[in-house]
Specification:
This protein is α+β, with helices and mostly antiparallel strands. It has a single domain, classed as Gcn5-related N-acetyltransferase (GNAT) (Aminopeptidase, 3-Layer(aba) Sandwich), CATH 3.40.630. β3 and β4 form a beta hairpin. The radius of gyration is 16 Å and the shape is globular.
Length: 197
């Protein structure tokens, strides 16, 4: 029965379109990946663990191919689009464990000028609804670097609870940084569901 549900859930993912008041989430196409790949502006210091972003079309196509290969094997990767159709970022549930009903959340907004407008926050809320209500997950985890205050605020706004710290776990720009771990359980999301994003 679990295998049947897993296959059905993935078929739904290919048809998915989640709409909020600011953004719509939907499957990324090859040209979307090329656009994100070229547009990404890393913050300084980099707010997430290092990304393997390059400038070539081939790099974007490789990313798209890897995403498609993983999409049915434990990952749901979607684009974040404004309501007028402009692509601003991507969001994913990765490491989906169907037996334990868990996954990890990742979200990124490509351009610095698009950060701080609530796109990532609302995208997170939309994907959490899908994770808990349609994929029947019991827990979603997330990790951020200690100095990424915007990501910490976004996670806490969406109900995530601080669970731990991996001390000196990441080496960036000649310095070691702690990785903070957060988690959200289905019952915690249920209490949050009806509050504004």
């Amino acid at each position: 029965m679990a295998l049947v549900w897993e296959q059905f859930a993935w078929r739904l993912a290919w048809m998915i379109e989640l709409r909020g008041s600011l953004v719509t989430l939907r499957v990324l196409e090859r040209d979307d990946c090329r656009q994100l790949w070229a547009a990404y502006e890393p913050a300084t210091p980099q707010p997430t663990e290092p990304l393997h972003v390059g400038l070539s079309v081939e790099g974007a196509d490789t990313w798209f191919a890897e995403m498609q290969a993983d999409q049915e094997k434990g990952r749901l990767h979607l684009g974040i689009f404004t309501l007028d159709g402009r692509l601003v970022g991507d969001i994913q549930l990765s490491s989906i464990d169907w037996h334990n009903r868990t996954a990890e959340l990742g979200v990124g907004i490509a351009l610095a000028s698009d950060r701080g407008h609530g796109y990532g926050r609302e995208a997170t809320r939309l994907l959490l609804g899908y994770a808990f209500d349609h994929l029947d997950l019991a827990r979603v985890g997330a990790s951020v670097l200690e100095y990424n205050n915007a990501a910490v605020r976004g996670l806490e706004h969406n109900g995530f609870v601080a669970e731990g710290r991996d001390r000196a776990a990441v080496f960036i720009d000649g310095q070691r940084h702690d990785r903070l771990r957060f988690g959200l359980l289905r019952q915690e999301y249920g209490a949050l569901r009806d509050t504004p994003a």
